[in-house]
Design goal:
Blueprint lengths: L1 E3 L18 H26 L6 H8 L3 H13 L3 E7 L9 E6 L5 E7 L3 E7 L5 E8 L6 H15 L12 E8 L3 E2 L4 E2 L13 H9 L3 E5 H6 L8 E6 L3 E7 L2 E2 L30 H10 L3 H19 L3 E5 L1 H4 L2 H15 L9 E4 L4 H15 L1
Parallel strand pairs: 4-7, 7-10, 11-14, 14-15
Antiparallel strand pairs: 1-6, 2-3, 4-5, 5-6, 8-9, 11-12, 12-13
Helix pairs in contact: 1-3, 2-3, 4-5, 7-8, 8-10
Length: 379
């Protein structure tokens, strides 16, 4: 296992009972949900204001009343999530200066893990999403999942030791867990993951929660990738590592599909007579890319991936594509050049249908997974 220095750079809701809750209980639940939603709105607004913001500005940004803002900020200050950070005069206005509020980045932390086909990668972020520690270790994809998850739990304990262990007295918000699909993210169950035969049917979320004692949120690796950084309302994260996939945001909303398994981008058929894919079909984009990489033909892998990206853009009309994954980031220029050429060649009007091409950070997937855990606080 290697441990890297920090780079510069809600628990599941219980299943409802068949019996209706008493009116008083429903009222209390609704009040708690409203309070959590309003707290999250205030925290998001403070986080977005890097130089601090006043209570008056928070009321304007969130649409909450001054009285509500006063109560919420008092609660968040008492919880240590916010701090008062000096005073500021409003330009063009007289009167006493306003107290600025700022987020306390190290008041809580979040964990993000990526279970790859050959490696475990775990990181911890502060409340701003900045990575403060990382660790990784190789794994055998053909092995039993139990020992691998035991190792993940040990890594979690190591990375949260200074927060009082995994539970951390509430200081660790949770663990976002990204893995290859097919995945039922609602139930946290894996289905026929290519290259990981012993993981089929594993109740991954339950298994990791039992080992860590943390709230665990499970997501496909590519969906975590698309959540790793903000972007336009119509965008895709395209992954080439030990597999091929895509994460999608359309209309400002993450797209997971009817079974939470959207984004199996690597299993579009590009050549019906092509090589056999690990999924059992022939000529899948993933099979073509991986076969080309095994043969040392980056140019062929790039050409195949570029064709798949052009198909995706024509189908979904996204305005940004982020390219990521270890295999691609090892030598990104050929892939970026091939994608640009394919988009210019295959879009009917590439100037009207302009697509921004971005390069993902090396740790985009686990960082996006950590963002899932942060969403328990920020909504």
């Amino acid at each position: 296992m290697t441990t890297d220095p920090a780079p510069s750079d809600a628990p599941g809701t219980p299943a409802p009972s068949d019996a209706p809750a008493p009116a008083a209980a429903r009222g209390a639940l609704n009040l708690a949900l409203l309070r959590d939603r309003n707290d999250a709105a205030v925290l998001r607004a403070v986080r977005a204001a890097e130089d601090g913001t006043s209570r008056v500005e928070l009321a304007a940004r969130t649409g909450l009343t001054a009285q509500a803002i006063s109560k919420i900020t008092a609660r968040l200050l008492a919880d240590g999530l916010l701090t008062e950070a000096g005073r500021s005069h409003v330009a063009g206005r007289s009167g006493k200066p306003r107290t600025l509020l700022r987020l306390v980045p190290d008041a809580r932390s979040a964990l993000g893990a990526e279970i790859g086909r050959h490696e475990l990668h775990l990181l911890r972020t502060d409340l701003t999403g900045a990575v403060v520690a990382r660790t990784r270790t190789p794994i055998d994809p053909e092995g039993e999942p139990g020992p691998i998850l035991d190792r993940l739990a040990a890594m979690v304990r190591e990375l949260t030791a200074d927060a009082g262990g995994a539970a951390g007295g509430g200081r660790v918000l949770g663990l976002g867990l990204a893995c290859p699909g097919p995945l039922d993210a609602r139930d946290g169950v894996l289905h026929q993951v290519t290259g990981m035969p012993r993981w089929h049917g594993l109740r991954l979320r339950e298994a990791v929660q039992e080992r860590t004692g943390l709230p665990v949120l499970v997501e496909k690796n590519t969906t975590a990738g698309v959540l790793s950084r903000p972007g336009p309302d119509h965008r895709a994260f395209v992954y080439l590592g030990d597999g091929v996939g895509a994460g999608l945001v359309l209309g400002g909303r993450v797209q997971r599909g009817a079974r939470t398994n959207a984004g199996e981008f690597g299993h579009q058929c590009l050549d019906p007579d092509g090589p056999r894919c690990a999924c059992g079909a022939r000529g899948c984009l993933e099979a073509l890319c991986l076969a080309a990489l095994r043969a040392g033909r980056t140019d062929r892998a790039a050409a195949a991936l570029a064709l798949g990206v052009a198909n995706l853009v024509r189908l979904l009309d996204v305005e940004e594509v982020t390219l990521g994954g270890a295999a691609l980031l090892d030598d990104p220029e050929p892939y970026e050049a091939a994608v640009r050429a394919a988009l210019a060649d295959r879009l009917p009007d590439p100037h009207w249908q302009h697509v921004t091409l971005a390069r993902a950070a090396a740790h985009a997937v686990p960082r996006g997974a950590a963002a899932l855990a942060l969403s328990r606080l920020f909504g």
